[in-house]
Design brief:
Layout (H helix, E strand, L loop, with lengths): L6 E4 L6 E7 L4 E6 L4 E5 L6 E5 L4 E6 L5 E5 L3 E4 L7 E2 L11 E8 L5 E7 L7 E6 L5 E8 L2 E6 L5 E6 L4 E7 L6 E9 L6 E7 L5 E6 L3 E5 L5 E6 L5 E7 L5 E6 L6 H6 L6 E5 L13
Antiparallel strand pairs: 1-24, 2-3, 3-4, 4-5, 6-7, 7-8, 8-9, 10-11, 11-12, 12-13, 14-15, 15-16, 16-17, 18-19, 19-20, 20-21, 22-23, 23-24
Length: about 290
Amino acid sequence: MPLLMVELLLDAHALLGESPRWHAGESRLYWVDIDAHRIHRTDPTTRRTETMQLDGPVGCIAPRAGGGLVAGLKGGCALIDVWGRAPRPFGQQVLADIPEQRFNDGCVDAAGRLWVGSVTRDKTNPAASLYRLDPDGSLTKMLGGLLTSNGAAFSPDGRTFYHADTPTHALRAYAVDPATGMLGEGRLFHQFETGTGRPDGGTVDAEGCYWSALWDGWRVVRLSPAGELLQTVELPVQRPSMIALGGADMRTAFVTSAGKALSDEERREQPHSGGLFAFRVDVPGLIQPGFAG
């Protein structure tokens, strides 16, 4: 397979860039800088970026079907009704009294439910969880015993849910009932070798293949529905954090990255760490559903 040309779309210098989400109706890429407490929306044509400053970490965002955003914050989920307006809490603020956790990665299923997981500050304490936030505000715990909930994505038919507990280096696939939102049996989807990068954020394309950004791996990879490695795209940064597919034809890959906790030497080797990158793909992505709440 020919090498793909990776473009630095925005030299953002993000501390912890994450959660890129393509908004097809606006032709904009929404994404966050978790540690800088910022939500961005970028026009990839003009490269103009608008920024919302929040007063705490924002782990993930997703467009709402009726306009605005849903966000996973420090203590719980929130709704942003209009760009620039302060978030208002939505659903149980389940992490409000757990200072060592915050919400992290999340995605919306075809029924408009947000699947959002938490992360623990202490990576020896498997106390994080994956939750499902329904449009009525009810919050259901789906998985427990996690360290860093990541990689949430659904197969095109909505019957397989992909998930990573990043420090385990493993991606898992779960049967899911699209109607009820209940998880069934899980299986190992792909195990990455220790020292080659850990699976962070991911997305699924129209062929049902799963793209994963490998933290400390300098690359993103495309896996078949059977978990076989199909494609590797090398990046000029050590810590790609998540990938999304979008653009007018849904054939542009957008990759966020992190620039925090690097040594001076590492920063010299990767001056664009924390940047937003883009490259073209052959298979388009799927337009993501909006949160129905």
